[in-house]
Amino acid sequence: MDRIRIVGGNQLNGVIPISGAKNAALPLMIASLLTDDTLTLENVPHLADVEQLIRILGNHGADISVNGRRERQGESYARTIHFTSRNIVSTTAPYELVSKMRASFWVIGPLLAREGKARVSLPGGCAIGTRPVDLFIEGLTALGANIEIDGGYVNATAPAGGLIGGRYVFPKVSVGATHVLMMAATLANGTTVIGNAAREPEVADLAKCLNAMGAKISGAGTGTITIEGVRSLSGARHRVLPDRIETGTYAMAVAMTGGDVILEDTDPSLLDTALEAIRRAGAEISATNSGIRIVRNGPGIRPVDIVTDPFPGFPTDLQAQFMGLMTKAGGVSHITETIFENRFMHVQELARLGARISLAGQTAKIEGVSRLKGAPVMATDLRASVSLVIAGLAAEGETMVSRVYHLDRGFERLEEKLTRCGAHVERVSD
Ligand code: EPU
User: Fold this and answer.
1) Among 23, 173, 322, which residue has the most ligand 1 atoms within 8 Å of its CB, making it the best to mutate?
2) What pTM was estimated for this model as a whole?
3) Tens digit of pLDDT for each residue in 154-175?
4) Which residue ranges form the domains of the chain, and what is each CATH number?
5) For residue 265, how far is its CA from the centre of ligand 1 (angstroms)?
């Protein structure tokens, strides 16, 4: 199994290209099931999660080609992928496939809307909390679906004439359930209004693509989304928006090591809150024509308290990385996680590098130390694993990160991007 070996101590200087967003690409790919026409997505990152979803969509009958070549032959960067689901050959998403990635549960929306039925295994995913599906079930029920859970599967059926537009106010913000309800409502009879919708940029990106396919959605990116159902959707061509989590991760890496880096092909307005926290930690951040420049020279890292929140708050997907940064701050900081109940698995691994962190409920107290020392550490989930890379970049000596498959789920060519900026990072295959 691959490991990542980091020898810390180098500053980062240079240019890092930011990939398309994993968390936009996944729902966009799933939206291709809504039409019998071809959906072409540009700027799709090459990640294990994308490959897994390609397998899942293939199981439903999607014909998928990468840059005009067949799936799995294209290794190029920022790929263009064509998805054509002329016929849905199966409305069942089996446990063996869904258990590997939570987002694959989201096929329930398009399958139900287009075929009138779906049988989808309860999901798996990162071990960051219980992550139930009650909000999906309530939301789809509000569109007239009949839903039963049986033998680990969610069985959903639409009324004879198809889903019916309805009104649903989420009791809690959910990105995935917002995606699913929005997709399902595009083909419902009548108008759907979603209240307390997730406002994440990935939701707005999905709505933009669905509208290009002929849907009638307004308000995506705000707390209220209105969807006027249409009879059918057509194909479209859509470019996946930049990955704000990857952007924030590299910005934090530069704040950690010091240096001067341009993050290219990204947009600072996607992560204002996180960039503000990095600024307060002592880095200079400015917008460039095509991205962000981040500089930290001289003074050390300042302690900053953060609380995770749904967009536009500080993203939970950057919490672990920010903790990595705070381990070397000149003082005490506090990080409170409000989205997931078990997203602190990086704490004990960061401690192996010499970090001083204590946990009280959902808040971590980080007492910054002047030096971290390299050690063997283990990746436990996607974002936790990259926090170890950030800490390793600033630790003395060698840090060896095992279980790298977590990193490969969400960071495209991480070692290449960092090495080009002067870091000593390599993949070691056993
Ligand atoms: N929740 C429920 N019931 C539901 C659905 C969600 O209680 O039916 C809870 C969850 O357990 C969690 C909270 O609501 O406590 C928010 O979960 P949400 O549904 O928003 O998360 P998600 O859609 O499963 C997406 C991202 C996550 C990201 C969260 C929050 C994708 C593929 N995943 O997950 O990304 O952390 O939104 O922003 O978009 C990652 O990329 O590493 C990752 C975990």
Assistant:
1) 23
2) 0.96
3) 999 999 999 999 999 999 999 9
4) 2-19+242-429 (3.65.10.10), 22-228 (3.65.10.10)
5) 26
